[in-house]
Amino acid sequence: MTMEIKFRQAFAVILFVNFFFAFQVVAQDSAPNVEYGNNPQAAHWLTTRGFRMYYEEYGKGVPLLMIHGNGGSIQAFNNQIPYFSKKYHVIAVDSRAQGKSTDDRDSLSFEMMADDFNALLDSLHLDSCYVLGWSDGGINALVLAMRHPDKVKKLAETGANLWPDSTALLPWLCKEMQQSYDQLRKQPQTIDVHRQLKLVALDLFQPNIHGDQLTQIKCPALIIGGDHDLILPEHTMYIWRHIPHAWLWIVPNSGHGTLIEHAACFNKTVDDFFQNKWHS
Question: Model-level pTM?
Fold first, then answer.
């Protein structure tokens, strides 16, 4: 077995729910022949901050930015775009160095990506929006609300963490990320390996957010996690406790992919949150 195959197996474990589900699950309500993340009718490009960002737009209404997890793409929201685009202006984006968005820089950080999303909103002449983020996208949602508070009306995030150790993540996941990182560093640094190394390093060493920093988030926030998530439920509760105007939803019988495993309930609950149906 080659080192490349060994790496791909380990990396697949880390990104399983963010990547595998995103490409395998088909939205029940999706329009015929619509391939989210590869739809020429909805496709847009923005050259900003040293890279080309790919995004797609659907629907009309209040802007709603959707941010996927590590190694994923717009396709992570196959179950959300058709639902939310009926009443929102959905902006689904491939994050820097992921999906179709290219980036050849050496570094990658959540702060960098939050500033990317801010630049995207500026380019669309949007002064604010709702934000929905999954996994790393949930971290991005939190950081965007911290760094650019005026841009986020409300946020809903599922599966985010504030720091990358076994007090926040399942211990086996921390071990797998370290092993994958070590294996990648031994590989010839091709463009693809370099990109993968950046993505593994992102979750291995970041984020580094202290709970007190979350008090900077002034918008209402819905903090979500599965009861069998890769993120420990007590860590999800820690995030919830430190945001001034936050609500908590621990989804029963769910892993990390809450928005896929329980798509119908997830969509309605997040929609109700955005629509002020169960909070003041």
Answer: 0.91
C-beta atoms surrounding 227 within 10 Å: 13
**Per-10-residue mean pLDDT, the chain, length 280:** 40 42 42 86 97 97 98 97 98 97 91 98 98 98 98 98 98 96 94 94 98 96 98 98 97 98 98 81
Residues pairing with 55 in the sheet: 44, 93
Domain count, the chain: 1
User: In the 3-class helix/strand/coil scheme, how is 219-271 assigned residue by residue?
Assistant: CCEEEEEECCCCECHHHHHHHHHHCCCEEEEEECCCCCCHHHHCHHHHHHHHH
- Which residue reads 């629509």 in tokens? 275
- 189, 19, 204, 157: which is closest to 98 by C-alpha? 19
CATH assignment at residue 34: 3.40.50.1820
Give me 34's structure tokens: 């619509």
- CA dist list (Å): 37 to 99, 214, 237: 8, 31, 32
